[in-house]
Each structure stands twice: as structure tokens, then as C-alpha cells.
Amino acid sequence: MANEPAIAGALGRLDQALLSLEKAIEKKKEKQTDLKGMQDDLSRLSSERSELATDLASQTKRADRLEQANEEVSRRLGSAMESVRAVLEQHGG
């Protein structure tokens, strides 16, 4: 019975060690969950970035086509104005 206090103390320390271990395991699980969430976010952001890059390229091409069309319309309008001036000059306008 002299060993009972020593055994009780050892059991108390064992309980504390097990509690510490459980806490450490829980923290590790939380970190893994956080990491998984961050990895999911990163994957989603990467996918969104890719979609945005594709959209940007498409809109850039569209803007280039519109600019070319604008230049063509401007050229044709200038040519039409010159033709109208020439006709007016021929007819005393």
C-alpha cells in the first residue's frame, strides 16, 4: 500500500499526458482542416484566374476588331466626304 500514492501520482501524470496528446491531435486536425480549406481556396482562385485570363484575351481581341472597324469606317467616311465635296465642286456647290 506504500506504492499507492506513487501509483496515483503516475496515473495522474498519465491522465495529463493523455489530455495533452488529445489536445495536440485536435490542434493537428484543425491545422489540416485549415490547410485543406486553403488548398481548396487556392484551387478555386487559380481556376477563376484562368477564366479571367481567357475572358481578358477574348475582350482584347474584340477591342482590336472594334478598333480596326472604327478605322475602316473613319477611312470610308473620309472618302465619302471627299466624293461629296468633289461632286459639289463640279456642280458649283
What are the SSEs and their pairings?
Elements: H1 4-90
Uncertain segments are: none
Number of strands: 0
Summarize the main sheet: none
What is Rg?
Answer: 40 Å
Total helical elements: 1
The structure class reads mainly alpha
Question: Shape from CA axes?
Answer: rod-shaped
User: Which range does the strand content fall in?
Assistant: under 5%
The succession of helices and strands, N to C, reads H
Pfam families: DUF4164
Organism: Cohaesibacter gelatinilyticus
Protein name: DUF4164 family protein
Features:
0% strand; mainly alpha; 93 residues; 1 helix
Q: What would you note in describing this structure?
A:
By secondary structure, the protein is mostly helical. The chain is built from one helix and no strands. The model has no long low-confidence stretch (mean pLDDT about 95).
